[in-house]
Design brief:
Two copies of one chain form a homodimer. With 203 residues, chain A is mainly alpha-helical. Helices cover 78% and strands 0% of the residues of chain A. The model of chain A has no long low-confidence stretch (mean pLDDT 95). The interface between A and B is large, with 37 and 37 residues. Chain A binds a DNA duplex (30 and 30 nucleotides) through helix 1 and helix 2.
Chain lengths: 203, 203
DNA sequence: TCATTCAGTTTACAAGTGTACGCTCATTTT
DNA sequence: AAAATGAGCGTACACTTGTAAACTGAATGA
């Protein structure tokens, strides 16, 4: 087999091994280089052929998780175009993603408030991106002004992520209950933003 | 000195040492028993005279942080009675607390999504308590029905905590900006909840 | 006063960590 | 065909970790 390809494969197996270790009881800062190497089936020192240290692997994982998040947004958008309440479809798509990619979402959540400034910054970037996309959507589909649209998007994303954290380790039925609650809360924000926006325009 | 008193003092110094270690780069699961003991000025094995293991110390810290949170609520309530916008006073009191007790709040945030199920549960309990108090307040001061009041309180607490996380490591000026944004977002929720509540009553 | 209790110490050990160094040997390049 | 490259391995070392065992000595209680 070609050298390049083999290297890529090993790199992949390291990343996959790390994801496997990142269950509900482990964070990036608590998995060791040796542990990941063991799980990936390579010698500890071989790890260095692929990553400078464990933090570099961590950043790679966060980036991949962010990618998955963007795929989620694309999916939600296409579903919205098929019709249905925007809020309903969005929340359900999000919750579906959370439960199907529990370890990925857990990684984002955990490192968002984690001990590594670099990881935190990387996660914040991904969430910021999420907020921007939502802001654009709001601007394109309502009469709300830019600053208020931004605030609305931010509030909504915060609610959804916070609820996602709660939904990550519960069964389908409970997740549905959480979804319903979140939908109403997003309606609060939606209605309130319109109302405040209109008042402002009146003055 | 009396034996009991001396023991209490040492226990205190262990707890204080732990808080000192819990800066922006460390979590409960990443501080070691030996490290805490070193910081507290005792031998590693003496630690066991006070706590069964490091997790027991962790739960003690979370409990203390919860206590501080309740003190914060009391402070906010008394300030509200002195007059001023409820949202404005609450948000400012909260942000003040966050910056004055950075390590305490960080502990709550970090362990909320941390690796220990026991710590997570303990933090959730504290936040839940926070939500209940706010729900009671809403019920007592508005015409919103119980289920909506509960949803409103939950949404508000989520926004405030999420913003608190953002505010924890920024300077006074930026914190003020965050406060202003949060205030508007809470108004969204407040207005939306009223509106949805009224609609429901109409039907 | 004398025996008991017990917070805190010293010493010790097995287990796990990151990583430096030098080697192998299949692939790639010349 | 010969030389260079580089992914992966084995060994080794200096550290840190949790905690077991046996101790010291001052506060306590009889």
């Amino acid at each position: 087999m070609s050298r390049k390809l083999q290297k890529q494969k090993t790199r992949r197996s390291i990343i996959d091994a790390a994801y496997r270790l990142l269950d509900s009881q482990r964070s990036l800062s608590s998995i060791s280089l040796r542990e990941v190497s063991r799980e990936a089936g390579i010698a500890p020192t071989s790890f260095y052929r692929h990553f400078k240290d464990i933090d570099e692997l961590g950043l790679t994982l966060v980036d991949e998780a962010g990618l998955a998040l963007r795929q989620l947004m694309r999916k939600a958008r296409s579903r919205i175009e098929e019709g249905g309440s925007v809020i309903h479809v969005s929340v359900n798509t999000f919750m579906e993603y959370v439960s199907e990619n529990a370890n990925v979402f857990r990684l984002l959540l955990r490192e968002h408030t984690g001990t590594s400034p670099a990881f935190r910054a990387a996660v914040v970037r991904e969430i910021q991106h999420f907020i921007e996309e939502l802001t654009d959507y709001i601007l394109g589909h309502t009469a709300i002004s830019q600053p208020y649209a931004q605030l609305q998007a931010e509030a909504m994303v915060r609610i959804v992520f916070s609820a996602g954290a709660e939904a990550i380790d519960v069964n389908k039925v409970e997740r549905k209950l959480i979804s319903n609650r979140v939908e109403i809360q997003l309606r609060f924000i939606f209605l309130g933003a319109i109302q405040l926006s209109v008042r402002k325009d009146d003055v």
